[in-house]
Design brief:
single chain; mainly beta; five-stranded antiparallel sheet; three-stranded antiparallel sheet; 1 helix; 8 strands
């Protein structure tokens, strides 16, 4: 059994049934952040779509971005949002901008002391939390200060 940041028993994330976000989830298992980019207008986007948010081209693909970002916003959660978290709290959720990808934003937990000061604009580094004992296995994207 591996120690996870949040308690076990939470619903397991899965790729969408249509497979659209499967490259993102596979990238996390490979310890890479893969986001969508348009090959026509060269803009980045998140969440995944079948067409570009900017130019409406169908030429979107997943590409790797550096595993770092900047805290755009955060929330310190004090109340359980799921029964599995009734004994856990507080914890910090961060909204992270990815400068290398047109500042698209991703959500994740900020690891470490749940009462640590959080500074908007701080650099954070990706931490890949593997859940290999789950069926099917999955990986979560967490963040740590860097």
């Amino acid at each position: 059994m591996t120690d996870y940041y949040l308690a076990t028993g939470l619903p397991q994330p899965n790729p969408a049934p249509d497979g659209l976000d499967a490259p993102y989830w596979q990238g996390l298992q490979d310890e890479k952040i893969l986001l969508q980019s348009c090959t026509d207008c060269h803009k980045w986007q998140w969440g995944p779509e079948w067409i570009c948010h900017h130019c409406h081209s169908e030429q979107v693909t997943f590409a790797e971005v550096p595993p770092q970002g900047i805290i755009y916003s955060y929330e310190r959660v004090w109340h359980p949002v799921h029964p599995a978290l009734k004994e856990q709290g507080p914890y910090i959720i961060v909204l992270v901008e990815i400068p290398a990808a047109d500042n698209v934003r991703l959500v994740g937990n900020l690891l470490g002391d749940p009462q640590q000061p959080v500074v908007i604009g701080s650099t954070v580094l990706a931490k890949f939390e593997h859940h290999n004992d789950s069926q099917p296995p999955f990986t979560l994207l967490q963040w740590r200060t860097g």
